[in-house]
Amino acid sequence: MSDLCRIAGAIGLAAAACLSPTAGRTSDWTIVSVNGTAATGQPQITLGADGTIAGNTGCNSFTGSARFENAMLVVEAPLAVTRMACSGDGLARQEAAILQLLEGETAFTHDPFTGASTLSRSEDQMALAELAASVFDIDFVTVDGLSGPLNIRQAPGTDAPLVTRVLPGTLLRNQGCEVGDTYDWCNITFLDASGTTGWAATEYLRPAPAAVRAQQGLFDNIGTLECRGSVEGEVALCDYGVARDGDHSAVLVIYDPDGGERVVHFAEGELAYAETAEGTASDAQDSELSGDLLVVTLGQQTYEVPQTVIVGNGE
Q: One of this protein's Pfam families, by short name (predicted)?
């Protein structure tokens, strides 16, 4: 994990390099809006693990080569673009803006708590939402992919009575989903004291990221691990809770015996960055693999974290 990733994480953002094709993953995004206007025609961008970029503007398709460098998306040469005539001035303007942003260097930012990403240069900006895995078997979801509140209905269907509306970014418990004619639907429950239940269209639900679940104390596993207040200090037991994402990424919350909390972020099974519960970055962060243990040092404190805590059993 690069220093750029650690620094970006410490301020609550994931740098482009931390999510880039060079990190060994293919990323698929839908373009949500262009210069503040909702996108039409379902434009998308795919950044391949092999350094390719492809997608469509909502009208024409494009392909090319791209890389991430210093929190910038760098398109290495002019894109190859199909030349179908776009219907309407709005779609033509959208295509022109997208292709202009995909020329040369464009700033890339990502919010790990909402999953939202942005490409921007000067006054031009393109909002992206990463295409997520199916939420059918996911216990906790967040509302995403729309600019206003999401309708929660009494039954699966757009003609069902309205229960309430919920803002983007809200964390919900998923009680189960079913396939519909126009939309698929999930039966969701609010996590607040109201316990409100209803049905939401899956198109606007995403698997809740580990950072969001950990912040709410919704862990995949809890337990204890060995910890020391200093290198020569006595061994103690610290309680922990862990929320996992895919690709061996996780957020580990450690509760020190003195009542303090450490929030430790891992990416691809390695320490990414750590902070206190108040969001202050921890000093002198380091980790070392010792057998099946990941020995994490945060300032004067040392924590022995079994690898299975981060990646889960059998992974």
A: META
For residue 234, the Cα-to-chain-centroid distance in whole angstroms is 38
Place of tokens 């995909």: 102
DSSP 36: T
Would you call 298 exposed, middle or buried from its count of C-beta atoms within 10 A (0-12, 13-18, 19+)? buried
Q: How many helices (H) and strands (E) does the chain have?
A: 4, 25
Which residues, 6 or more positions from 179, have their beta carbon under 8 angstroms from its beta carbon?
none
Which two tokens mark 212?
Answer: 């969001």
Q: Residue 31 pairs with which residues in a beta bridge?
A: 128
pLDDT at 87 over 50: yes
- If we measure between CA atoms, which residue out of 201, 215, 231 comes closest to residue 300? 231
Instruction: Report phi then psi at 280, rounded to 5.
Output: -85, 130
pLDDT for 116 equals 75
Q: How far is the C-alpha of 73 from the C-alpha of 71, rounded, in Å?
A: 7
Phi, psi at residue 156, to the nearest 5°? -70, 110
Of 268, 274, 271, nearest to 294 by C-alpha is 271
pLDDT digit string, tens, across residues 252-304: 999 998 888 899 988 878 888 888 655 555 567 888 888 889 999 988 889 99
For residues 309 and 298, what is the distance between their CA atoms, to the nearest angstrom? 18
Closest among 77, 75, 108, 157 to 8, alpha carbons compared: 108
- C-alpha radius of gyration, the chain, whole number: 22
Distance CA 312, CA 264 (A): 16
The dihedral over CA atoms of 217, 20, 71, 244, expressed in degrees to the nearest 10, equals 10
For residues 243 and 182, the model is more confident at 243
> pTM of this prediction?
0.58
pLDDT at 5: 42
